[in-house]
Structures are given as C-alpha cells and as structure tokens.
Amino acid sequence: MIRLISLEYMKLKNTTFFWLFTGLFAVVLIAVPIFSKYFLDFISDGGPEFGGLKINDLPFFDFVDIWQNLTYIIKWPAILLAFIPVISMANEFRYGTIKQNVIDGLSRSELIISKLLFSGILSIVFGILVFIIGIYMGLMYSPVTELTFIVKNLEFIPAFILVLFGYQVFCLLITLLIKKSGITILLLLFYFFALEAIGYGIVKWNYEMAEATSFFPMRGMANIIQNPFPKYGLMQVYTEVRFRDLLATLGHISLYTFLSFWVFNKKDIR
Amino acid sequence: MTVSNVLSIQKLHKNYGKLTALNQLDLNIQPGQVFGLLGPNGSGKSTCLGMLLGVTNPSSGEFTWFDEPAGTNSRKRIGAILEKPNFYENYNAVRNLKIVCKIKGLEYTRIEEELKRVGLYERRNDSFKTYSLGMKQRLAIASALLADPEVLILDEPTNGLDPQGISDIRELILKISQSGKTIILASHLLDEVQKVCSHFGVLRKGNLIHHGAVGKDLDDSVHLEVGSEELQRLEKSILNFEGYISHKAIKNGLAIKLTQGKTASALNKFLQGEGVLINHLVTNKKTLEQQFLEILETND
Fold first, then answer.
1. A16: closest CA of chain B, how far (Å)
2. How far is Cα B248 from Cα B227, in angstroms, rounded to an integer?
3. Fold annotation for B222-298
4. pLDDT, tens digit, 9 for 90 and up, residues A77-114
C-alpha cells in the first residue's frame, strides 16, 4: 500500500500542475473564511440592520455552526483538487507511461489503487487543513469555546473528506473514458457548474422530487453537506449529516470506484 | 531453478472486430535463446508482445512465463520496451528510472550503473523531453535492464534512429545477448535479426508461418550469382569447386551457395582455370532477406 501511494507521489511531486492545484485550493481554503469574515464586518459596518441585528451578529463562525458553514462553502472550489487525478491520468495516457507501468510489472488494478489511495490521502490532508482553520476561526470569533461545542457537528470534517474523495474518483473515471486532460476538465467544469447546477435546481425546486437530488453524480455526493445558510433566514435546514446522504455519497463513491476498475481492466491499453 | 520454457504460448488469439491480429499462435522460447520475431509492419508482432506483457487483452488462448501463470510477478522479471520509449516527459532520466524501480520493487542502487552502460550518465539530470530519439531509446534499454531481468523484450529497438543510433543499439543488444539473457526481438529488419538472433519466427497477417534456429535456416554460407554464356560448362565445373554446397538456375546464370569464407574472386580464379568465361558475378550477402522473402512468397 505504501509502495503504491509513494509511487503516485513520485509521479506528481515534480510536476507544476500538482503544486498549482493543491496550492490554489489551499489558498482558497484559507482565504475564503478570513475574507468572508472581513467582508461581513465591512458590510455590517453602518450597514442595514434587521430588527437591531447586523449581519455579522449571525453566528457564522460560532462553534457548532462553523463546521457545516465552512465545509459547505469550500466544497464548491474543491473541484480544483479533482483536476489532479484528471491531469495525472491523462498524462499517463498521453505519454504512454501507463503502458510502460503495466509492462514493468504494475497491474492495472494496482495503478487505479495507487491513484485512489493518493486521492484519499490528499482528501484527508485537506480535511485536516479545514479542521485547523475551523478551530482557528472558532477560537477567534466564537463566543462559546467549550470542548463539547467544538466537537459537536465535527462529523462535517469526515463528510468533507468524503466529498473531496468522491469528486476525485468521479473525475478519474471520466478521465479513464476520455483520456485527454484539456477536454475532460472543460467538460467537467461545464457539467458541474452549468448542466448539473441547472438540473439540480429544477429537481430541488420541485418539492416532491427534492430527494432525487441524491442521484446527481457530483451534487449527489456533495449533498452530504447540506446548505446551512437558509437557517439564518429562519428556514428549516438539516444541520447534521443525514444518514441517507451518507449512504448516497458512499454509494456514488463505490459505483465510480467499481466502474474505474472495470473500464480500465476491460480495455486494451494503447 | 531452471525452467524448461521461458515462454510458452498456446493458441494465443486476438481479433479486433472482424480483423484477426494474431491467429492461434503456438510458440515456446527456451532459456538463453535470442529469438527474433520477424514480420512486416502490421503482421501482429506488437499485438503479440502487447498480450504477453499485459497491456492487450487476449481474445482467447493462454501463455505462461517461466512455467507460471503470467502476471505482475512474471513481468517484474522481464525487461521490455514496446514500440516507443514511454517516460514522464518532464522528468529527468534518474527520476524516471526511480519510478521504474518503485514499480519493480528495486533499490535505486543500479540506476547509475545502467545509465553509464547506455551512455546517458552525463545527461541524467536533463528532462526526458530534451533527449534525441536515440537517447530516449537508450534510456528505455537502461530501464529494461534495471531489474537485471531474465528476459529482455525489444520491439523495433532501432526504429527511427539514425545510422549511428542504430549501430549503438545493436552493439548494446549484442553485448547483452552475450551475457546469456533470453532476448525476444521483434523487427522488420532482417539483418538486425541475422546479426543477433539464435532463433527466429516469421509472422505474416497474424500467422506464424515459419520458426526455427537461425543457424540452420540462415547460415553464414556465401551466396553468389554467376552469369555465363556457357551455362552447361559452368554448371559442370562448379561441382568441382572446393566449398561448393548447391546451386540452382536463375535468369541468365546460376545462384551458387558456397561454404563460409569463400569469395567471389576465388571462384572467378577457379573458373578461369577451368576455362569458363563469366559475364556476371555478384556476391549476395542478404541471405536472410532472400530466405525471408521466399518464406513469405511460399505462404502467399
């Protein structure tokens, strides 16, 4: 297992794209909560009041709320991370190194496992980073800092790790089918931010069908972290990880993992 | 442990839709053989090697490496390059070879030695994409030799190289073959096979139409074409020439086969002594090519 993880790391560690995307995501991950704090302070400063309540009086960064708020926002740019397996895999096709890897004695399944394990590690690393940022922001701005409040709803961190991992597995599968990095990325961006967004909106709007959103390939996984913000408008939201969303996420991940193995083992490598 | 067959293939078959790329191939390769797989482009050589190395899925049939079911463990004992050198473009030679070591489960200790052997040590820190084709091919050979493999598989190793590159690679193959390794060399270049191989097989449109030892079929005998206006006298006299093996009639003369070391001038002198005047005398060194074309023709 260690051999397969370090194999993928060796393939990535001297590439620009790997450090570009991890760096970019890390910057986004750190910048978003800090800037939102400043932004909220800024617009609250002499801004509109709602019955004596300013926007930054809302407990965005308070413990209990902070985990869902943070992970919900950051799960959108998390697609940046999923471009790493896309480019890595597409490059292997482009340079024929995948062929050489197999010839040298790596099984096709081992190759997929090495990509997936590395994606898993990457997801955990960023999960930890979000945890650190959450702790930092919470300790700075939360009025309550008792341990019981800090750890409450902390399950959003592992949920976030699952989302990161799920995105990467899905994007890897698409790359195995398309094999070219540029077109795969464009297609994924278009799908994620346009096609699926519209479809999701329509289904979600239709009250009876709302639960069917679990079947969307990417948002079905991301659903595990439900949108917490309507609650500040006094609307009802889910403020915990729902079991059915967890099942949906795990279902998606299992399906894409299985399909990746199947697709890659079935085809000849050219 | 000695194995009886390094490679044993039974009824290996591959078709792409209606096209048969390799047809029911049976073949055994014994340890120490330098096996040349000959065939024109598109004859199924690469398909065959692709299946033997796990990158192409067979339609049917079986094969074993080292008398064991083929798999990742057998592939780790093989060094192979298929078609073109495949490496991480932005990585230098050392990093690329480290990745190969990782896959094969090797220490990095032999990297330096192999790079020196193929003459790339000076350029080891330059990225792969800056290499010439010859250098890429040499790196591929270094990579194939990294595990000190029992079997070396080379697919068209001199394809696209300049004369210097070709001669470098051939010299390298010869050196390696002398160390007793089993080598499988796919090529459409006959003299390449003739220079290094102990055994050979000919593939044509997916069928193995001939296989055997090079020594038997492709010996070092000297082939001459002799033309004369007195064909009957020539035919009679030639039988007395020391080193005569056989002859057959061709257009305006005879194709004569002589033992190794005999020369055209010796024959010319002899025929002059016999009083036979000749008007055409050519040494034909491309015996394998002739043989090859004959094999292809008879199987048309």
1. 10
2. 12
3. Alpha-Beta Plaits (3.30.70)
4. 999 999 999 999 999 999 999 999 999 999 999 999 99
